[in-house]
Structure formats: C-alpha cells, structure tokens
Amino acid sequence: NAGVMQNPRHLVRRRGQEARLRCSPMKGHSHVYWYRQLPEEGLKFMVYLQKENIIDESGMPKERFSAEFPKEGPSILRIQQVVRGDSAAYFCASSPRSTDNTGELFFGEGSRLTVL
Amino acid sequence: EDKVVQSPLSLVVHEGDTVTLNCSYEVTNFRSLLWYKQEKKAPTFLFMLTSSGIEKKSGRLSSILDKKELFSILNITATQTGDSAVYLCAVLSNSGYALNFGKGTSLLVTP
After folding, report:
1. Among B45, B90, B97, whose Cβ lies nearest the Cβ of A98?
2. Tens of pLDDT along A51-106?
3. Residue of chain B with shortest Cα separation from A43
4. How far is CA B3 from the centre of its chain?
5. Tens of pLDDT along A1-16?
6. Cβ of A100 under 8 Å from any chain B Cβ?
7. Residue A2, min C-alpha distance to chain B (Å)
8. End-to-end alpha-carbon separation of chain B, Å?
9. Among residues A2, A65, B45, B108, which is most buried (max CB within 10 A)?
10. Chain B residues whose beta carbon lies within 8 Å of the beta carbon of residue A48
C-alpha cells in the first residue's frame, strides 16, 4: 500500500514564476492537509481539503496561494509569482477521516521549493 | 494564540542512554496531543494522547500527558543510533482541523 506521494521532491523557481506541488493521498484516504516548514521553524498548517471541497484554509496566505483536490487526480498546491520567502518544505498529509476524530496524519516526504 | 513549546531544542547522547523530551502547550479547547518522529523524510506517527496520566508505550518509547500542568514527555530508553531524528510534538484543538506543531527536538545518538 503506497504511502502519501508528493512530487516533485525538489523544485527550483525564479522569483515571479509559478510553483505547482502535487500530492496523492494514501489509498482510501479522502482527507488531505498541506503544511509548510520554514527553516528553523515547526510545521505550519496551511489548508485542509476533501474531494472537491476546501474545508479550512485558515493557514493559507491570502494572496498567490491556492489549493485544490479534484474529484480525479492529486491535490495541488499552487503558488503564483513566487518570492524568496516562499522557499520552504511543503508537506502533504492524508487521513481516512477528519482530524477531529483521530488527529493522526500520514505524511508524504515533502516537496522542497527553492526560489532564486 | 495557541502555542506548543518543545525542549530541549537539541540533544546529543550516547547509545544506551535514556532521554526525556518535553512538550508544553497552551491551547484553547484541547483535544489531543501527538508525537511524531521526523528523520530526513516524512514525519511518522508515534503516539496520540488524550487523557492525563495514561502512559502510551511502544517498545523503548513511551509517552504521558499531564492536562493539569499542560505538558507531555516522550521517553526513549536504551537509545540506539537509529533513534536519531527530530521529534515533533503537536496539539489538536476542538475548534479546528489543524495540528499545531512545536519546533521539534533534534536528537543525535552517538555510537
């Protein structure tokens, strides 16, 4: 049973370009979470999605960031017009149920974005 | 604002030592506290604690929660080099879906 799959593992972008990060949850999981880890910082929640719905985006920056989890295909975190401060590791996690039931998440290995 | 503080930030021990990692929190409407182990890849789940005073145990690792004093400890006995990792503490509240993580404790076990 494959775990949470993220790609790309490493992404380099120049300022002003767009970054797209993909996440395929574990088989049977319909809840996806995105977290960001800045250097020397803890994991910070960004957004929680179920299929075709954004449930909680309270951790997402108001501009340039968006997320989706379509009916078919992976969840995508999109960052438009990237800036150097967006350089971070972006982790996706999935669960079979909402965290208000268990709190346990299964994490992917992360996508490391570097903005030049 | 909810807060999770882990200590120490880093720790170096010799194989065979016992270590205790600390996690204190301030969270509105506490629901559960979780421990994760992060090596160079994905954080992996260790324990979830919801009740005070009940120890969770898995092999050489154990953890306990004190909801009155608002902290948890993670113990590792007879440490091995494979225990070297960053240990993350996270708290979940009843008022949202987000796990609130501390900055982690970086543990290095030397041979």
Report:
1. B97
2. 889 999 999 999 999 999 998 999 999 999 999 999 999 999 998 876 555 668 89
3. B101
4. 14
5. 579 999 999 999 999 9
6. yes
7. 13
8. 41
9. A65
10. 97-98
